[in-house]
# Entry
Amino acid sequence: SETITFPCERWLAKSEDDGEIIRELVPSDIFTEKLMKDGTLKQIEEEVEDPLEVHTYKISVFTGDIYGAGTDANVFLNIYGDLGDTGERKLSKSETNFNKFERGQEDTFTIQAVDLGILYKIKIRHDNSMFSPDWFLEKVEILDETTEESFVFLCERWLSKKKEDKKIERTLYEQSYDGERRSLSESSVSLSSLDSSGNPKEKKSRLVKSAEEGLLIPYHITVTTGTEYDSSTDSRVFIIIMGPQKVQTERLWLDLPEGKDEFADGSVEKFSVWGLDVGEIKKVESLEDPGLEKTINHC
# Structure
């Protein structure tokens, strides 16, 4: 028989230590009992060769500084590296703030896990619970304190069932990662999301081009409504940004913040949305509301 020891010496309790109830343990000793030919039992104790290292990851979560950005929902994170992933962890106790995930705030958490290697992706979500679950996440920064390597994951999107694409989970890639990305599903580009008019073959061609291009970037959009009589609209507004060779984004919905129900005369509204990188912007399509002027910046 073989007995393997996994030391812990930490609390698994929400009210003790760091409040974590999940621990990753690595083996340290192997205790073997072997029955010999003469009937005696031989006991061998040895240390594990080349044991896995447990790394400490310092996670900084930045909530956006826009109206209604904070959330009261429970937030969960899974970190992926080239050597494995942490599994989904709840970000329960902020080390920097009593009320976590508030507008314009940085919240810090510590996670211990077996060495993940080079981090390239995270999945972050909330459970849509509590009174104000909608959340605008700016970015997540992760420091591997063991190697002192830092990784940045940009978001600048809503995790909300009411806003933008109505998703409460995001897959974010490290900003310098140039490997395979499943951006098609993340950007919700589909035939049904394109205009219902036009040639079906042309729409399919646009979708294929979207899938091949793949890279998502943030667009910072300013909408200025004219001051002429009856310039306002209470319609839901979207834009489609077009680049060369018929490459274009999906419909990018410009949903007003809570408390506003129209693009009022003379108003200026700012939005941050993610869409396909179309390269040089050639044209923008929007709902044809009189007096609607558009300013679009992308990075």
Notes: The chain has three domains: 2-47, 54-180, 193-298. The two ends are 60 Å apart (CA to CA). Confidence is low (pLDDT under 50) at residues 183-213, 288-293, 295-299. Residues 243 and 281 are 5 Å apart (CA to CA).
